[in-house]
Amino acid sequence: MTPLLRGQESEGGFGIYVHWPFCMAKCPYCDFNSHVRHQPVDQLRFTAAFAREMATMRERTGPRTISSIFLGGGTPSLMEPETVGSVLNEIAKNWTVPDNIEITLEANPTSVEANRFRGYRAAGVNRVSLGVQALNDADLRRLGRMHNVEEALVAIGLARDIFPRLSFDLIYARPDQTIEAWREELNRAISYAADHLSLYQLTIEEGTPFYQLWKAGKLITPDGDHAAALYAETQDVTAGRGLPAYEISNHAAPGAESQHNLVYWRYGEYVGVGPGAHGRFIENGKRAVTITERHPETWVSRVESNGHGVVEEELLTGEQEGDEFLLMGLRLVEGIDLARYERLTGHGVKEKRVISLAEQGLIEYIGNSRIRTTPEGAIVLNAVIADLAA
Ligand code: SF4
């Protein structure tokens, strides 16, 4: 039997990520690659650029079978359904897209965007991830969101009727948030029958308006102990309601885990298309990293002139792959396969270190060749990874 070359079979899956970089307004905590335009965006021009960059990426990856597609942003629910349909058609022209793979679109729950949901479903989207963020109007205003709770609930109801799968995001560890208030909000969120929740702690990113307020002492976020208690409460409530964590911030009913996110955390491969998109895929036996131009109009011009908007790239060494594999995989409740670490790096993790971390209660074995972090280890994940990778 001819052995498979690296990249012919994809350990961890092979996803396509498409970045739509525009938003109606910039949220004060956001450091994503998102931009506000006061003129209509030329969606046809962007569609043509997505198609062109995909064709270039297809030349690099060769023929592959896709395991998931994710339209993220920015706010992809500002795309016309025709734009989404064209992007999905282009993906299918370049790679093999099996029936029923997960195709997710991130959406904001304003009424304008919810009106496009049927069009997205008709275009092939089968999972929507709603940026609900809070079920409390005062906090939604404080987070600079464009929707209120009432609109969010209408969008959730509509999404549940239209899409086979629904996830939504909430931000917690918000200023003044008590454990009781969060518990009540989380229980309410679960009762809206999403099969997947992404629950992120509010983080203050440098360069954002929230960072300025925080530095000036005008925005107080929970201290470490309170944040840890909110995290513990999150784990308890979600597990008790049938949506246990499968990753540090992601919770799902069994079988409803996001296949696309799993591609990242299982250290699979993905092509990133659009402004500021990252990709990681096997090319000539090595893992290539690609990063495209962040500024949307500059990205389009680059694609129009060069066939792609890639501005940074590198080929990873086995050692770098091993570090990334630990970094991603130890976020997962299913943990990592030590044999794969050895295949990537050419050597195993140091047994002495594994034993020492296990003795400290930070990691545990699952069977003979898998390890994962314990809940205590998850809180100090970076230190655990640094120790294992040293
Ligand atoms: S909608 Fe999302 S991507 Fe856009 S500014 Fe707000 S947080 Fe950032």
From TrEMBL:
Cofactor(s), names only, from the UniProt record: [4Fe-4S] cluster
Localization of this protein: Cytoplasm
Domain Radical SAM core stretches: 8-244
SMART domains recorded: Elp3 (SM00729)
Pfam family, one: HemN_C
Single biological process term from Gene Ontology: porphyrin-containing compound biosynthetic process
CDD domains from the UniProt entry: Radical_SAM (cd01335)
GO cellular component, one term: cytoplasm
Protein family: Belongs to the anaerobic coproporphyrinogen-III oxidase family. HemW subfamily.
Function text: Probably acts as a heme chaperone, transferring heme to an unknown acceptor. Binds one molecule of heme per monomer, possibly covalently. Binds 1 [4Fe-4S] cluster. The cluster is coordinated with 3 cysteines and an exchangeable S-adenosyl-L-methionine.
Name of the protein in question: Heme chaperone HemW
